[in-house]
């Protein structure tokens, strides 16, 4: 039986994407070759790269002042890569500390420059997005984690500032419309909302680069990858191919506006049940901070936890278990999760 995949990442992909991706492993577009065995400099892959980039640009409205890169190393590499490329030792990056991923980015950034944490919800185990803080003058950039995959919170109001935002969007990229002009860099590991693990999408405003004094190894210099059009070295060919298929799927669904509606509808169904059903409660203290991607909740009576887990699993819901630092349950309902998948989980909750 095909399971309903609520895993936080690597995560669910559209069924049609999986089928086409499997076909391409056997034979890419009747070429007689597998996508796994073609050169990254072949005509076939150059076309994949071009189409993937143009879909990113089209869906998000990314203009020529930004470069679109497909790198490796995951979002975790971008934690220090952004600092290495943007921040001189005497310069300061602002941070909103909204979860474990933000904390890691802060730690890495301190290796290269100064860090000013403008607000943190750590004291309350990151159960909300801080909303009252001041943004000082003179920050080189302000780093935010748009969606906190582990704690189930999401930024719904972007900081009001002309300081460029550097955003880790690993777990909500392409799930909604964003005011692109506020962002200096957007990065996202693909394995939550875009494709398989192995490629990191980076959208970088070109005029922010070239201001650091330190020497950068080629592989850790955005400008080298921009010049090489993401083929300075061998890029993750297959993950990029699957990302292309996923972006085509998003476009077919109606783009980011349609994704946003679809995601709001699914999240509402699940949160309404959490709020209505006395057997469950949400872990996010401030409802305005709730994530539309990762829905975290617990059983009101902890003794029910194991039984609910069992019933959800029996209904075909896989990966609903919460992260160890929050406990309880987490249902990740990324773009590719159909409404009917959430309905199945909600029905288990109703019957419970
Ligand atoms: C999963 C995740 C990461 C880590 O990504 P890797 O690709 O494993 O390095 C970073 N930030 C967020 C928000 C995530 O969800």
Automatic annotation (TrEMBL):
Q: In which pathway does it act?
A: Amino-acid biosynthesis; L-serine biosynthesis; L-serine from 3-phospho-D-glycerate: step 2/3; Cofactor biosynthesis; pyridoxine 5'-phosphate biosynthesis; pyridoxine 5'-phosphate from D-erythrose 4-phosphate: step 3/5
EC number per UniProt: 2.6.1.52
Entry binding sites for L-glutamate: 41
Keyword ATP-binding assigned:
no
Task: Outline the extent of the Aminotransferase class V domain.
Answer: 5-345
Q: Which cofactor does it need?
A: pyridoxal 5'-phosphate
Which Gene Ontology BP terms does the record give?
Answer: L-serine biosynthetic process; pyridoxine biosynthetic process
GO CC terms, sorted: cytoplasm
Q: Top enzyme class of this protein?
A: transferase
N6-(pyridoxal phosphate)lysine PTM positions: 192
Keyword annotations:
Amino-acid biosynthesis, Aminotransferase, Cytoplasm, Pyridoxal phosphate, Pyridoxine biosynthesis, Serine biosynthesis, Transferase
* Free-text remark on how the cofactor is bound: Binds 1 pyridoxal phosphate per subunit.
Q: Which reaction does it catalyse?
A: 4-(phosphooxy)-L-threonine + 2-oxoglutarate = (R)-3-hydroxy-2-oxo-4-phosphooxybutanoate + L-glutamate; O-phospho-L-serine + 2-oxoglutarate = 3-phosphooxypyruvate + L-glutamate
Q: Binding positions for pyridoxal 5'-phosphate?
A: 75-76, 101, 149, 168, 191, 233-234
Question: What's a single GO MF annotation on this record?
Answer: O-phospho-L-serine:2-oxoglutarate aminotransferase activity
Q: Where in the cell is it found?
A: Cytoplasm
The record's section on InterPro entries has: Aminotrans_V_dom (IPR000192), Aminotrans_V_PyrdxlP_BS (IPR020578), Pser_aminoTfrase (IPR022278), PyrdxlP-dep_Trfase (IPR015424), PyrdxlP-dep_Trfase_major (IPR015421), PyrdxlP-dep_Trfase_small (IPR015422)
Q: Which family does it belong to?
A: Belongs to the class-V pyridoxal-phosphate-dependent aminotransferase family. SerC subfamily.
Query: PANTHER family per the record?
Result: PHOSPHOSERINE AMINOTRANSFERASE
* Subunit-level organization: Homodimer.
The protein's job, in short, is: Catalyzes the reversible conversion of 3-phosphohydroxypyruvate to phosphoserine and of 3-hydroxy-2-oxo-4-phosphonooxybutanoate to phosphohydroxythreonine.
Q: What is this protein called?
A: Phosphoserine aminotransferase
Q: What is the lineage of its organism?
A: Bacteria, Pseudomonadati, Bacteroidota, Saprospiria, Saprospirales
Gene symbol here is serC
């Amino acid at each position: 039986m095909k399971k309903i995949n609520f895993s936080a990442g690597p995560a669910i992909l559209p069924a049609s994407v999986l089928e086409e991706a499997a076909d391409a492993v056997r034979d890419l577009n009747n070429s007689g070759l597998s996508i796994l065995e073609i050169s990254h400099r072949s005509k076939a892959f150059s076309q994949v790269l071009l189409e993937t980039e143009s879909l990113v640009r089209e869906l998000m409205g990314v203009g020529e002042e930004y470069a679109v890169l497909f790198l490796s190393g995951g979002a975790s590499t971008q934690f220090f890569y952004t600092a290495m490329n943007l921040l001189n030792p005497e310069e300061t990056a602002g941070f909103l500390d909204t979860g474990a991923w933000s904390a890691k980015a802060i730690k890495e950034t301190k290796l290269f420059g100064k860090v000013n944490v403008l607000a943190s919800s750590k004291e309350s185990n990151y159960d909300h997005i801080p909303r009252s803080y001041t943004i000082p003058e003179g920050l080189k950039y302000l780093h935010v984690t748009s969606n906190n995959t582990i704690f189930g919170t999401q930024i719904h109001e972007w900081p009001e500032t002309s300081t460029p935002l550097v955003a880790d969007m690993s777990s909500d990229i392409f799930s909604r419309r964003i005011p692109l002009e506020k962002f200096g860099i957007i990065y996202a590991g693909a394995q939550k909302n875009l494709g398989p693990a192995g490629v990191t999408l980076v959208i970088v405003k070109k005029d922010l680069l070239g201001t650091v004094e330190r020497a950068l190894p080629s592989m850790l210099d955005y400008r080298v990858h921009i010049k090489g059009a993401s083929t300075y070295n061998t890029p993750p060919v297959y993950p990029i191919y699957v990302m292309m298929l996923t972006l085509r799927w998003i476009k077919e669904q109606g783009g980011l506006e349609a994704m946003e509606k679809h995601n709001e509808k699914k999240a509402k169904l699940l949160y309404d049940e959490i709020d209505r059903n006395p057997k469950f409660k949400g872990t996010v203290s401030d409802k305005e901070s709730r994530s539309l991607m990762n829905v975290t909740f617990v059983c009101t009576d902890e003794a029910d936890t194991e039984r609910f887990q069992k019933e959800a699993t029996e209904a075909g819901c896989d990966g609903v278990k919460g992260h160890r630092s929050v406990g309880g349950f987490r249902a990740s309902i990324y773009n590719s999760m159909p409404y009917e998948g959430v309905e199945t989980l909600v029905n288990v909750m109703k019957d419970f």
